[in-house]
From TrEMBL:
Residues 70-404 form the AB hydrolase-1 domain. It comes from the Bacteria. One of its GO terms (molecular function) is hydrolase activity. The keyword Thylakoid does not apply. Transmembrane segments: none annotated. Belongs to the peptidase S33 family. SUPFAM superfamilies: alpha/beta-Hydrolases. This is Alpha/beta hydrolase. It comes from Kibdelosporangium aridum. Keywords: Hydrolase, Signal. Residues 1-23 form the signal peptide. The keyword Kinase does not apply.
Length: 444
């Protein structure tokens, strides 16, 4: 049965709420985390603000010195929980001296009304969640999987899933701001979190202060075009690894892929996410010994599909994906059709709701990007920075994630930006290299 749902039109403007609402926030020690935690109540459906509510789990690490504001954190996904992020950031930077670091589990994840789609362990295997076709490019099994997942998700979580959107998560962020009693927020978001940050600056332009967006998606290609870019990103990242490794690693990859199949392809893709994984990847190509596959989280997978399917336009003809997969295999053999394959979105029973067109930001925004990124290629960061009118800083290295994930010198630019704002960043060159050894470039 096809379920037709949509959010009420005209809900892009959040209702005005008194800044004194923060008086109701009660912090308590987090379970198993050296942080404070609370819960912020938000509408399930912002089109019905007085209707059912859900709780958003929020964490905090208070500034240890003079506080300049709050820094909300998002690790990406979509589908990743973020309650632990303040500890991650404080362990790796000095930002906790000047900011209250604020983590939160986005709606549908972690402790914030989680959804699971009733997924079995078999359904959560990474090469199924991220749909690799058969060795010959056939997607018959992928079609059956996508159809079953769409049906199963709405049988299990049909009340919640239609309301899991980036716009609603941005609205939840603003409710967190209000609960904290802050007039503005600063923000650090990775990967999908760059789009979430861009949507926040669009919906709440005068509530955004300093936004650092790391490893950006193309905000104009949500979501099928963004996923299709993985083919190029994976290929370029493997080339970067091959230059590091030397020798004919492509031949080794092809031989092992033919022998071990999609579990091998999936594991290699994951190992390209950091240059620190290159030695282990080289060892895998030498030995062919796969690590045991770890199933994906039911919650992260479910929210991934909800965001992608609720927001993007997807062809309804499975044959279109079969043609696209076959066409993509020659230019992007490492991905083997992954980037063009079918998702549950083809059979998703909800039409896309309120797509957000990202516009020029009133906030100070800095986009940070690696040159070879398997998940968010450089072209996406160029598009994102152009849409926002933001500065782009590029690190000449491989991997997904720059700030606090690598030791590249351009991370100092990002820290200066968050701590000193426009004045600190203006001391850097407007173009060319940022320091001779950093190999970073800035682009307008």
């Amino acid at each position: 049965m096809r379920i037709l749902m949509a959010l009420t039109a005209g809900v892009l403007v959040a209702p005005l709420i008194s800044i004194t609402a923060h008086a109701s926030v009660r912090w308590r020690p987090c379970e198993s985390l050296p942080l404070e935690c609370t819960t912020v109540s938000v509408p399930l459906d912002y089109g019905k603000p007085h209707g059912p509510k859900i709780g958003i789990a929020v964490s905090r690490k208070k500034a240890t010195k003079a506080k300049r504001g709050v820094l909300l954190l998002n690790p990406g996904g979509p589908g990743d929980a973020g309650l632990e992020e303040p500890k991650f950031v404080s362990d790796r930077s000095t930002l906790a001296e000047s900011y209250d670091l604020i983590g939160f589990d986005p709606r549908g994840t972690g402790r914030s009304a989680p959804v699971t789609c009733g997924l079995t362990e078999s359904q959560r295997q990474p090469w199924k969640v991220f749909p690799y076709p058969a060795a010959n490019g056939d997607i018959t099994e992928n079609i059956a999987y996508a159809r079953q997942i769409a049906k199963q998700c709405f049988e299990h979580d049909g009340r919640m899933l239609p309301h899991i959107t980036t716009a609603n998560t941005a609205r939840d962020m603003d409710r967190i701001r209000i609960a904290l009693g802050e007039r503005k927020i600063s923000y650090l978001g990775y990967s999908y979190g760059t789009y979430l940050g861009a949507v926040y600056t669009t919906l709440f332009p005068h509530r955004a202060d300093r936004f650092l967006l790391d490893s950006a998606v193309d905000s104009g290609g949500i979501w099928r075009t963004a996923f299709q870019s993985w083919g190029r990103g994976i290929e370029e990242s493997f080339d970067h690894f091959a230059q590091w490794a030397g020798g004919d690693v492509r031949a080794a990859y092809s031989a092992l892929a033919a022998k071990l199949g999609n579990p091998f392809r999936s594991q290699v893709r994951t190992m390209l996410y950091s240059e620190k994984g290159y030695p282990a990847l080289l060892e895998l190509l030498r030995t062919g010994r796969l690590a045991p596959a770890k199933p994906k989280s039911a919650t992260s997978s479910s929210v991934w599909w909800a965001i992608a399917c609720n927001e993007g336009k997807w062809p309804r003809d499975p044959g279109q994906y079969q043609r696209d997969v076959l066409a993509s295999r020659e230019p992007y053999p490492i991905a083997n059709g992954l980037s063009a394959n079918i998702w549950p979105c083809t059979f998703w029973p909800v039409s896309p709701v309120e797509p957000v067109k990202v516009g020029k930001a009133h906030a100070k925004v800095l986009v940070l990007q690696n040159t070879q990124d398997p998940a968010t290629p450089l072209s996406g960061a160029v598009a994102m920075s152009s849409a926002l009118g933001a500065r782009l800083v590029v690190a000449d290295q491989g991997g997904h994630g720059v700030y606090l994930y690598t030791d590249h010198p351009v991370t100092a630019v990002a820290t200066d930006f968050l701590l000193e704002g426009a004045e600190g960043f203006a001391q850097r060159p407007d173009s060319g290299q940022i320091g001779q050894q950093s190999q970073g470039t800035t682009q307008e």
